[in-house]
Design goal:
By secondary structure, this protein is an alpha+beta fold. The chain is about 20% helix and about 30% strand. The longest helix has 14 residues. Bound molecules: pyridoxal-5'-phosphate and 2-OXO-4-methylpentanoic acid. The site of pyridoxal-5'-phosphate (PLP) has 11 residues, from α6.
């Protein structure tokens, strides 16, 4: 498998589209058109009324196609929609849309031997022309897909820097997958990349004392074989994190903690990793706090991180049995 970062847009043949008009969703259909036609005053363009999701389909070792926990993405989309005054997309329609897109693009799912996956990106946006600040009444949802490999270079550990700006307000939208959380991070990630870092590590926006997450993934730590997951109401509830917590506790029988983690204490931790659908589990090599570097490892994955990553991947590829309901088979 290509170990370099490989997470970019390319047009695949089919995407699923459905519209919300007069208070209800339509039937929805597959389309070969990757373009969106919008009114110049569509609410999404001015007021960022857009939420999205990200999930993966894999080829298993025995050649089946499985989606990893799509029901959890559906649930999180629902909470994003509620907070953004957007309509709920029903569960049956969500799963049917995933199924249709995966099936229609199935020749683009990397083989088990290649590694990689088909990444499915559902996005919902407000299309109504608005001038005053108010919610759209009409919406569109699309599920498109791309073939992906690693989000970060798999031969290197990630380099993070402590951010000087916040990604979310204390009672804001940090806990949902809304485009606006990413819009504010774009100049910050550009600056981080220019300075040789892979990601920004955000601290809590109220006291700047606790560890939150990075721009595109949750974070966790290991100390004396215990896996420690930072808790915060302003981070995205990561499905990979919930899965990793389960794997650590129920499969590997490791001690876990989910709690507030001060930035100060991480100096004493043994391993550090990011977790997310795109980034899977990515070992973190160092965190730079304005020139003071906390070093976890130098391009070597720590033993517990390695075990967690292997177990997660083995589940996703059908090498070891998945906990009930984790794999949604697409026939
Ligand atoms: N945090 C942020 C800000 C993200 O964008 C993502 C990616 O989805 C995650 C965490 C990880 O969440 P998940 O594991 O559900 O993909
Ligand atoms: C994901 O992991 O699915 C995301 O949406 C994160 C993004 C940075 C690619």
């Amino acid at each position: 498998m290509n170990t370099k970062a490989n997470f970019s847009y390319h047009k695949l043949p089919y995407r699923y589209i459905n519209s919300f008009v007069d208070g209800k969703w339509g039937e929805g259909e597959l389309s070969e058109d990757e373009r969106i036609i919008l009114n110049e005053s569509a609410c999404v363009l001015h007021y960022c009324q857009v939420v999205f999701e990200g999930l993966k389909a894999f080829k298993t070792i025995d050649g089946r196609i499985v989606c990893f926990r799509p029901d959890m993405n559906k649930k999180r989309l629902e909470s994003s929609c509620k907070q953004m005054n957007m309509p709920i997309f029903p569960k049956e329609k969500f799963l049917a849309a995933v199924e249709q897109v995966v099936k229609a693009n199935k020749e683009y799912i990397p083989s088990f031997e290649e590694g990689g996956s088909l990444y499915i990106r559902p996005i919902m946006y407000g299309t109504t022309p608005t001038m005053g600040v108010k919610s759209a009444k009409e919406f569109e949802i699309r599920f498109f897909a791309v073939s992906v490999g690693n989000y970060f270079d798999a031969n290197k550990t990630a380099r993070l820097r402590v951010s000087d700006v916040d990604r979310a307000a204390p009672k804001g939208t940090g806990n949902i997958k809304a485009g606006l959380n990413y819009a504010m991070s774009l100049s910050n990630i550009t600056d981080a990349h220019n300075k040789g870092f892979n990601e920004n590590l955000y601290l809590d926006p109220k006291e700047r004392k606790y560890v939150e997450e990075t721009g595109g993934a949750n974070i966790f730590f290991i100390k004396d074989n215990k896996v420690i997951f930072p808790y915060s109401e302003s981070i995205l509830p990561s499905i990979t994190k919930m899965s990793t917590m389960y794997i650590a506790k129920e499969i590997l029988h490791l001690e876990i903690e989910e709690r507030k983690v001060t930035f100060q204490e991480i100096e004493n931790f043994d391993e550090c990793a990011l977790c997310g659908t795109a980034s899977t589990i990515t070992p973190v090599g160092l965190i730079d706090d304005h020139g003071h570097q906390i070093i976890f490892s130098n391009d070597v994955i720590g033993p517990i991180t390695s075990l967690l990553l292997k177990t997660l991947k083995d589940i996703q590829h059908g090498i070891i049995p998945a906990p009930k309901g984790w794999l949604y088979e697409i026939k």
